[in-house]
Amino acid sequence: MITITIVPQTQAQIAAVTKLLQDYPASTEAQSQDQPSPPKTTPRVSSAKSSVASAPAAEPKLVTLETVRARLTDISQAGKKTEVSALIAEFGATKLTEVKSEDYAALMAKAEKL
Question: How many independent structural domains does the chain possess?
Fold first, then answer.
């Protein structure tokens, strides 16, 4: 006999567990009798709260050259070409490709204020 303890924290988790349990008999019946079943393993979690707390925070959005170029092009075409050139110069560059990739997020933030 196998004992499984499930401690859902949210309605979404409850719904997911319920769905899995409803589908369980159908998934086991679908397995062929002549095929060996895969080995059963169970993940070990010390506590449900620690697993929720250890979830990584939302990762910062990566800003690419293409994203910056598209936004600055839109701003330039809206009649602010001089402001865009000045903004690029603030980052020590004469053209966008000379701006350091680590400065893209700051450049985008300033561009949104134009």
Answer: 1
The predicted-structure confidence for 14-53, as pLDDT tens digits, reads as follows: 777 777 777 666 555 555 555 566 666 655 555 545 444 4
pTM for the model: 0.48
pLDDT over 60 (residue 102): yes
Domain that holds residue 93: 65-112
pLDDT of 59 reads: 53
Q: Does 30 fall in a domain?
A: no
Amino acid type, 76: S
What is the 3 state secondary structure string of the chain? CCCCCCCCCCHHHHHHHHHHHHHHHHHHHHCCCCCCCCCCCCCCCCCHHHHHHCCCCCCCCCCCHHHHHHHHHHHHHHHHHHHHHHHHHHCCCCCHHHCCHHHHHHHHHHHHCC
Within-domain flag for 17: no
